[in-house]
Design the sequence.
């Protein structure tokens, strides 16, 4: 699961040094720096993508805020991209869910999201919630609290939500009939929840889904990090009306392994990333034909010396005018700290637009885990970690919000 991988990346990188500054192909600006040590009342370690609401960038922070032995139980934050001013719009409590691991979904004037733990049915344990948040009033409403405990309900949603005709759809990492995760639906008005699919105990249809879903032509598409015919994860399709699930592709390592990001649709094909696998075992960008199940590796990371082209992509991709953009959680000019890249799906040509840790002690952040958003031709995103050294309570080591102008 991506939470474990984040920790492993952090430990390995802390023992390394920034080696060199990259040849920047885009202009990066650090808009806001999160603190690292307690109390971090505004939040720390933003894990997901941002959303633009009336000129403010809203996101979630996994920790910070209040509670839980000073570590904090997570926040919803808002950042003004012009001034860099940040506000903790909501500090999560155990009752309304804690430790959000994904970004937010905007529908009308409300934001919708998930927490990976907490809720009225579980306390501090990893059950989680689906919630709505009104940025105008600061009011949060729990739409559904997962039951957990090996029950048929899902448990520990790690991904964000999508909406189709007034219904919210998402995935859980665990829970369900076999405790291998679920695909669920929640009525955003009533909060009524339905498990559409429980992943099987034998893992044949995949398990441990940490990615959000894609709605395309009356079907839902997603990925699982593990399971499938070869144990390296799957791409699956689900009919939201019947709950019928079909495995479209099982990864075998050489064509990618451990997909943790959701999918995007571009000209009839689905595109996604895997964290590992591929020609160099450092992740891939792949395409998949949903009609035939044919999968193609568009790009294998770590092709260049010392993985200067990036490695281990975790976040969703975005498409702009036929070019795909994304982030890698490691690799780049400084080897360990991540990149923003572009990729031409027609030719497979990849370009590193920016390598993190190109400023003193990684003051520009490192290890981006969330995807990018485009606001008027400027990309905005987050990194999970910040400076590498002297991370006291007043130092900004808990990630950043950045902009990138291609």
Sequence:
């Amino acid at each position: 699961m991506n939470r474990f991988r984040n920790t492993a990346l952090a430990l390995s990188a802390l023992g390394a040094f920034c080696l060199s500054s990259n040849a920047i192909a885009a202009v990066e600006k650090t808009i806001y720096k999160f603190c690292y040590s307690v109390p971090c009342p505004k939040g720390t370690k933003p894990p997901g993508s941002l959303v633009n609401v009336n000129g403010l960038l809203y996101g979630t922070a996994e920790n910070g805020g209040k509670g839980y032995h000073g570590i904090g139980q997570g926040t919803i934050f808002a950042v003004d991209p012009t001034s860099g001013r940040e506000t903790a719009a909501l500090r999560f409590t155990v009752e309304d869910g804690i430790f959000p691991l994904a970004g937010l979904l905007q529908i009308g004037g409300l934001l919708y999201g998930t927490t990976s733990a907490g809720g009225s049915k579980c306390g501090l344990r990893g059950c989680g919630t689906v919630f709505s948040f009104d940025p105008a009033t600061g009011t949060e409403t729990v739409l559904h609290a997962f039951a957990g405990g090996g029950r048929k309900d899902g448990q520990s949603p790690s991904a964000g939500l999508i909406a189709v005709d007034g219904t919210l759809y998402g995935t859980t990492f665990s829970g369900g009939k076999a405790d291998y995760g679920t695909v669920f639906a929640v009525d955003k008005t009533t909060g009524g929840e339905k498990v559409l699919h429980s992943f099987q105990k034998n893992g044949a249809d995949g398990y441990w889904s940490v990615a959000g879903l894609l709605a395309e032509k009356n079907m839902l598409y997603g990925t699982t990090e593990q399971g499938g015919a070869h144990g390296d994860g799957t791409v699956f399709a689900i009919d939201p009306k019947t709950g019928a699930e079909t495995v479209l592709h099982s990864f075998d390592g050489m064509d990618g392994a451990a997909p943790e990001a959701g999918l995007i649709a571009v000209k009839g094909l689905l595109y996604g990333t895997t964290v590992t696998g591929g020609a160099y075992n450092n992740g891939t960008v792949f395409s998949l034909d949903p009609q035939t199940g044919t999968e193609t590796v568009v790009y294998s990371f770590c092709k260049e010396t010392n993985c200067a082209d990036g490695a281990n992509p975790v976040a969703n991709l975005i498409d702009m005018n036929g070019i795909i953009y994304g982030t890698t959680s490691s690799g780049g000019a400084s080897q360990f700290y991540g990149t923003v890249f572009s990729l031409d799906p027609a030719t497979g040509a990849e370009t590193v637009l920016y390598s993190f840790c190109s400023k003193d002690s990684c003051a520009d952040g490192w290890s981006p885990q969330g995807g990018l958003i485009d606001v008027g031709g400027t990309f905005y995103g987050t990194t999970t970690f910040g400076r590498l050294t002297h991370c006291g309570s007043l130092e900004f080591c808990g990630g950043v919000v950045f902009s990138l102008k291609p």
Remarks:
- The CA atoms of residues 152 and 176 lie 4 Å apart.
- Helices lie at 2-14.
- The mean pLDDT is 90.
- The longest helix spans residues 2-14.
